[in-house]
Amino acid sequence: MKVIIVGAGVAGLGIGWRLAQAGVNTTILERGEPGMGASFAAAGMIAAMAEMADAPPAEAAFGERARALWPDFAIELEAASGMAVDYRGNGALLIEPRPAVIPPGAAWLDGAAAQARAPMLANIVGALWGPEEAQADSRALSRALAEAFRQAGGDLVTGTQVTAVEAGAVVTPAGRHAADAVIVAAGAWSGRLGLPVTPVKGQMIALAPPSGAAIPEPVIWGNGVYLVPRPLMGERGRLLIGATVEEAGFDLSLTDSARDDLRARAEALIPGLKQWSLVEHWAGLRPRSPDGLPLLGKLASGVWVAGGQYRNGILFCPAIADHLRDLVLGRAAVIPAFDPQRFQ
After folding, report:
1. Which of 70, 176, 185, 340 has the most Cβ atoms closer than 10 angstroms to its Cβ?
2. What is the pLDDT of residues 286-326, one digit of tens each?
3. 2-85+136-197+289-343 topology per CATH
4. Overall average pLDDT of the 109-130 stretch
5. CB–CB of 278/239 below 8 Å?
């Protein structure tokens, strides 16, 4: 069996790795470099509680399934690639009014207890504590998946733009390439191949602490932003702050207003950040479907889709890798809520 995957973000790379492990002849075609789209821009949160709080049941269940897969997935990937992905189950604080129902596995902390977990926090009434929330370095994850895919025998071809997808084939400037199955995992660019996916721009910033200051331990959500500690990026680490939500097409330009708003919101949560240095400002494009749910399954004869992950590409990564492998190999059924044919 021969499979061609369009796109080398974490979804395409993860699916490719799983298929190559299963002995499938797998090629990934990438228009740029591996992991340089939404995967590069992502903060790397594995946030089944924070992101799935208001999700439909099918998506919430898929998110929980993915979260449960992550610890073993990270161990296996690091062993297969010889590269670290910085998976850390450091938990998350959601600074919000106390919910009427506490999610399973979570706990409500009063202000003092929340500050004990993140001493830099401003005075707050309380926060929801999610001990199972985690994160990985999304940039390192992309590199590790690419290497694991190659080590498993996969063929990763960069600098190749797919201009069309047909039944069991893709078209590039070099010609038509046939396969038993084509999987479109091109992120926000999937819309240019006829899928109902649109780009949603997100700008982020990173701050580095002054000498002697420590970064928070847990991920912190509040005031319209999230703060993600990344201790391994530099000797003192850095704090990622995101993200805007902008309907701007494929425009990746950076704005001072977004930068300043993100920083101000973060400083309201942690006043000490006023003394931290801005070290990076970037933007990415999230792939969103019309109903906000993923597109996972068969679109047409010989054509499969793994798209529309929107804000949850890193969280969903191991579950999407397993699910698409099993779908293509006839081992699983499409999840009805994610069926790509629902928009036809």
Report:
1. 185
2. 999 999 999 999 999 999 999 999 999 999 999 999 999 99
3. FAD/NAD(P)-binding domain (3.50.50)
4. 96
5. no
Q: Which residues contact 221 (CB under 8 A, 6 or more apart)?
A: 50, 92, 93, 94, 95, 96, 227
Does pTM surpass 0.85? Answer: yes
Interval 162-191: pLDDT, tens? 999 999 899 999 999 999 999 999 999 999
Domain ranges of the chain: 2-85+136-197+289-343, 92-131+199-287
Cα 101 to Cα 106: distance, rounded to the nearest angstrom: 10
Asked if omega into 243 is within 30° of 0 (cis), the reply is yes
Q: Which two tokens stand for residue 124?
A: 């707050």
d(CA 48, CA 21): 27
* Topology, domain 92-131+199-287: D-Amino Acid Oxidase; Chain A, domain 2 (3.30.9)
